[in-house]
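User: Second chain of the day. Same drill as before.
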Amino acid sequence: MTQKFDVVVIGAGPGGYVAAIKAAQLGLKTACIEKYQDKEGKTALGGTCLNVGCIPSKALLDSSWKYYEAKDHFAIHGIEAKGVTIDVPAMIGRKANIVKNLTGGVATLFKANGVTLLEGHGKLLAGKQVEVTGSDGKTQIVEAENVILASGSKPIDIPPAPVDQDVIVDSTGALEFQSVPKKLGVIGAGVIGLELGSVWARLGAEVTVLEALDKFLPAADEQIAKEALKTFTKQGLKIRLGARVTGSEVKKKQVTVNFTDAEGEQSIVFDKLIVAVGRRPVTTDLLAADSGVDMDERGFIFVDDQCATSVPGVYAIGDVVRGAMLAHKASEEGIMVAERIAGHKAQMNYDLIPSVIYTHPEIAWVGKTEQQLKTEGVAVNVGTFPFAASGRAMAANDTGGLVKVIADATTDRVLGVHVIGPSAAELVQQGAIGMEFGTSAEDLGMMVFSHPTLSEALHEAALAVNGQAIHIANRKKR
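Assistant: Same format as last time:
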């Protein structure tokens, strides 16, 4: 007998599992389908983010930063640490334990909320029927009143550097190195490339990042991107812009990478090469030909502002649809869709989705950049405050970077908050909360911020928008 559900979710990543839990909490009979298996051959929930993305990479970023500080920056605190070494397998093992705890936690949440887990590959058929193919090849059909497609994304492959997960790896392989490569190449100076490059550079690798674009971090505010490039270069990352990889050859556990840049044809030999040129949606064999769901030529599923597809009762969220490929965006889309299925008029504010790069210093922003606003012809006032003037940052020996607040010159409404520096993601989230309620720079400036905190840098930057900063000299108005 065919199982029937109110909601069937395909994919248990941060979009899918959150949607399934929310739908169940709203009283809907819910199933979630997941095919991903861990090294032990057991179904692992949490998608790319928990298993081979956001969480494990942060574990390595934090471990490598602690090593770097102990090795090079404890003396300033009066702490003597001699002969500091890194046990890479132990670091990787810690990461694996964190992943195991979190993926197991999702399974526990499914049980607690009454979500039925169906293990296998989910495929949408006509009439909102879903075929589930188990790892043993056996299939079953389930019927759904509503289907949520949340199959996620995977790393993009490029022909000039085919991944073998040994010498040439993608972001997944870069989380599994058992020793520090002497010379490491990274193709792509985006979020993933910079984070993974940072991990291994701190542990002693000589890292070269090859970026095809001539501009560094084009999505970020130009002032922040410029500061980031200067900082990473100082940290030892060799970032080569306008470098187009044309080919690679693996020989004796090394790879020669050929590329062209402004100086012509070049080649560099690396011990390991990470390919981090972006991600693409996983929609292969997700939809039967007669499912009725429309996709574009790049494999993204067409949806409206509420994530509804071309088929009534079928929704798609996360990395398989338009917009930023971010876990928090996927989760909030999942909640919005579950609530709409339950009859609520939920909406999502796509203008205020924060972006974060978890390097050190962190880089984060929400809202619009100064260059975007200039292009749109919006007159703005800008306030900045450097962490070099923050007492809390000095106490932590972490004074690099700045906070930037951009406000409409006419209304004073905050249109963007951009940070490079300690706890950038947390400070930007404070900005996002204010912006959600239509804050002005004056509003932020009038609030009481505790002292001494890093948050005071946001306070001062907001005051600086209107030339009222206390702890730095204000720009004279022309």
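The radius of gyration is 24 Å.

User: Great, on to the next one.
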